[in-house]
Amino acid sequence: MAESEREYVREKSLEGQASARERGRHGGRPKVFDDDMLAYARALRERGVPVPDIAAKLVIPSGKNKGRHPSVASVYRMLAESGEEGEPRSG
């Protein structure tokens, strides 16, 4: 009985998510980085600026952390996801 109840709840959740997607709503946290921030970070990285310095130059434009700097880990992740070399250099 409990297993069928769990399956019913799961199906209803998936239906709700599909319905929300059709209305243009997406789950998850909002993105911190916009296209301008990404372009600026990539340009700085291409000029050889260290990622911690890039993080200090960026400012989050909206949301709960508006006006604050993103973490160094977030900048590495953003650069890696955009195809840019995001790995720390050893040496």
Q: How many beta-strand segments? A: 0
Taking pLDDT < 50 over at least 5 consecutive residues as the criterion, the unreliable ranges are none
Mean pLDDT score: 86
Fraction in helix: 40-55%
Radius of gyration: 19 Å
Beta-strand percent range = under 5%
Structural class: mainly alpha
Whole-number total of structural domains: 2
Principal-axis shape equals elongated
In DSSP terms, counting alpha (H) and pi (I) runs of 4 or more, how many helices? 4
Largest sheet: none
N-to-C CA distance: 60 Å
Write up this protein.
With 91 residues, the protein is mainly alpha-helical. The chain has 2 domains: 1-27; 35-81, no CATH class. Helices cover 55% and strands 0% of the residues. It has 4 helices and no strands. α3 packs across α4 (72-81). The longest helix is centred in the N-terminal third of the chain and has 21 residues, at 2-22. The relative contact order is 0.12.
Summarize the SSE layout with pairings.
Layout lengths: L1 H21 L12 H12 L4 H7 L14 H10 L10
Helix pairs in contact: 3-4
Features:
mainly alpha, 55% helix, 91 residues, 0% strand
